[in-house]
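Team,

Forwarding the record for the chain on the shared tracking sheet. I've put the sequence and predicted structure together so nobody has to dig through attachments.
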Amino acid sequence: MLKRMLLMLAVTAVILAGLGFVKFKQIQTAIAQNAGFQPPPEAVTTIVTEQGEWPATLQVIGTMAPVQGVTVSADLPGLVQRIAFESGRTVGSGDVLVELDTRQEQAQLVAAEAQRDLARLTYERMRDLVKDDAVSRAEYDQSEAQFKQAEARIGEIKATIARKTIRAPFEGILGIRQVNLGQYLAAGDPVVPLQSLNPIYVNFGVPQQDAPKVRVGRTVTITAEDLGGTVFAGRVTAVNSVVDEATRNVQVQATLANPGGKLRPGMFVQTEINLGSTQRVIAVPASAINYAPYGDSVFVVTELKDPNGKTYQGVRQQVVKLGPGRGDQIAVLSGVTPGEEVVTSGVFKLRNGAAVKVNNKVQPSNSPSPTPEDS
């Protein structure tokens, strides 16, 4: 019985070994047949690179700020007697916004005027009497001082009445009203925001290494996506004298014309500063760039050889250093030389050494100043 079992096990082992050998030979044959397999070429579009000159610019994020902007507030306490404005309207310098109740001050003014009239009569009488030595010089001086005090008191009351009429300190656009009729306002309580919008400031920071190139008078253009990509132009009017320790940026302020008040304080805008020089770059469509954490790259079309030594049209992945963008284009500062054929679409499906087939019937957009149909 034991011999029979051993014989069966031996036969089974021989059969399994034979099957394994046959399968091994099949796999070995398949590997040999596919060793020279080349994936089908990927369809791509390309351009031949050319060197050109771009104006040296710096693109940063800016924030709009008013040339003049305040929250108009109450100077003295009092009840709101009249509201003379509507939210969001344009006002001129000195326009009345709110009038506070001045009945008490008006009554005080009448009493002060009566005291002044009496003090003036007394003073005039004393002036005649002192000429005849009927009164002492001290009595005359006292009457003169009382008359001047009465006049000063009237001036003080009139100033208080004037301060209870709240006026616009400059021309601008009002915000949303923050007071109601009959409301009691304490000194300093807000009434309404007021912003002067034309001209307007844009504030932005530039890296400390670029700060020496940014000078007063440099041209600045800003683009607000919320306004359909409208471009506004202005000039640098101030450069901060210190570097921010937290960001290592230098704050810069530019002034722009803002007809119609389209730009509003606090808006986020794309800002481009002209640094006053030019740089030689190779411009490629933004779609040609393969962005990656380890470095940006492009694919250059060239002649390659497969493992069998056969030549085919493929791509070489080339790491590049990028510069600023302009419209649909990106500036390549290094890594590509003029005359090389660079892939402009389909880069996401390529790898180093991949075979490609160039088809340039439809090209991606490659304009430095595009005008989209929906803009």
